[in-house]
Amino acid sequence: MASLKPKNASGAVLLSKLTKDVFIKNISEARAAEGDIEHFCFNKSRLRVVSKTDDLKKNSKGIIYLMSRDCRVEDNWAVLYSQKLALQNKLPLHICVLTKEFNCLYPTKRHLHFALEGFKEIQKECEVKKIGFHFLKANVKDFVKIVEDNQIGAVVLDFDPLKKPVEWRNYLKDNLDKNVALIEVDAHNIVPAWLASEKQEVMAKTIRPKITKQLPEYLTGFPEVCKHNYQGKLDTDKKLKNVDDVYDFYKPLYDVEIVKWAKPGAEGAYNTLLSFMQERLQYYGISSNDPSKNHTSNLSPWIRFGHIAAQRVALEVKSVEKNCKEQVDKYLEELIVRRELAENYCFYNSNYDNINGAAEWARKTLLDHKSDKRVYTYTRDQFEKALTHDEMWNAATLQLVQEGKIHGYMRMYWCKKILEWTKTPEEAIEIGLWLNDTFSLDGTCPNGFVGVMWSICCVHDQGWGEREIFGKIRFMVDYSLKRKFNMEAYCARFGRSIGKTSAKKGVKRKAK
Ligand SMILES: Cc1cc2nc3c(=O)[nH]c(=O)nc-3n(C[C@H](O)[C@H](O)[C@H](O)COP(=O)(O)OP(=O)(O)OC[C@H]3O[C@@H](n4cnc5c(N)ncnc54)[C@H](O)[C@@H]3O)c2cc1C
């Protein structure tokens, strides 16, 4: 897999060094001797045992890693742990994907295409590594029977704080044979979500010291997945042979066009990381907020689909910090602190997708202003079709619909305007989430829920001066965007001009 790793400007392979820390012992030996992965010391706090026992069922015939969120082979603690378990017990390893549960993971053709093209790479890598890879025409219920029929000793799951995956985990906990070990691994976060903090954090400044303190323990290199020594069949009539079969079988809920700029899979992710480090990192925190410029990493789709580990991105970016320390620090603040703060919110707050997830003061201020007069109101359909009076907002929506991603800074403005132009804050959250999750390639992830809740409910933010509709929720004005950035250029990319048609007045500040 070394060929997939990015190279830096001087051409050196950017494989972050695997340090000989206490958690990855004898790593060079483990890498050198194929099949020796059981000798590497896995930091067990990356996993949680969901079942009563983590002992393997007696006379087991295999281990399954149920892949749903972290869809990659290398740099994946869930694959590494599953393989270690399988090798230690001389068992075959199977990676399974439940295609009947795709609705909540891949709601549109756009998301499905990105996921399946990534799975094509995974399938090939599994062939090389002699690991079984299976698309199953099954949901979690069917999966229980497959585990039973195949005398599987342990099932390893991806950690995911969102409702559906939590439901799956609980279903498996209640329905798998009590002798089967069920283990959840946080392969998505650098510091496992259950250790980053023991409670819902108020804002970045409260979680930052907790995460920073734990980084020396968790921001480590990855050992390589090795060729698996033990093979075995997974017997079930629910197998789909390849990606084409999955395309035939699973029809997504919405027919949203695929996007061309983002090549799915680990290779696409590494190339994007490479171009970021070579061309855009130097501007991070300087002009990365400017919507008319492409100065951010653009990595969010691959991180969302698990095609690249945030930990790999952090290691690579950190490896060049001596060249541009300030930019690297700013980037790692977003990638690690802000992203893991979003995970923390969804992990501890089951109302992450509605107004009840707001702090009491924020909910109250929104409800106090619920009946304020709205100068403009639009329906979901009008929003989707970019038919508002504000051409900057329309351009952002066209970017979302056409490119599958709005520039990060515009996302805030975009969502706050939905609050301003809908009848109620509840409706604003619903529409904001629907648009984000349907069209954004990186949608349906904790960052998306928190982005919408930050914009509308001030989650992780503080109270501001009282205004109509917004109450104490932070407000954003169009003239400030126009003053700071070349918004004419941004709009022109989508065939719009802010010249005459933009909003003349925003919502007024309420007189004290
Ligand atoms: C209304 C709204 C909706 C959003 N929806 C999503 C979404 O669906 N998916 C998503 O990944 N992000 C979302 N964000 C957060 C942020 O805008 C995106 O992560 C960022 O724009 C992705 O582009 P990038 O990878 O180029 O970011 P970069 O600026 O290069 O950042 C690097 C990485 O840091 C993380 N990150 C950056 N900003 C944030 C943030 N504010 N909160 C949490 N993590 C962050 C992401 O993983 C991102 O890939 C949303 C923000 C708002 C205000």
Key descriptive features of the protein:
512 residues, alpha/beta, Rossmann fold, DNA Cyclobutane Dipyrimidine Photolyase, subunit A, domain 3, 3 domains, Deoxyribodipyrimidine photo-lyase, flavoprotein, deoxyribodipyrimidine photo-lyase activity, DNA repair, EC 4.1.99.3
Describe the structure.
- The structure is a single chain.
- The protein has 3 domains: about 15-195 and about 205-250, Rossmann fold (3-Layer(aba) Sandwich), CATH 3.40.50.620; about 265-350, Alpha Horseshoe (Serine Threonine Protein Phosphatase 5, Tetratricopeptide repeat); about 355-490, DNA Cyclobutane Dipyrimidine Photolyase, subunit A, domain 3.
- With about 500 residues, the chain is of the alpha/beta class.
- Strands 1-6-5-2-3-4-7 form a 7-stranded mixed β-sheet, sandwiched between helices.
- The chain is globular.
- α13 (about 325-350) packs across α19.
- Mean pLDDT is about 90; it is low at about 1-35 and about 500-505.
- It is built from 21 helices and 7 strands.
- It has helices at about 25-30, 75-90, 100-105, 110-130, 140-150, 165-175, 195, 205-220, 245-250, 265-280, 300-305, 310-320, 325-350, 360-370, 380-385, 390-405, 410-420, 425-440, 445-455, 480-485, 485-490; strands spanning about 45-50, 60-65, 95-100, 130-135, 150-160, 180-185, 240.
- Bound molecules: flavin-adenine dinucleotide.
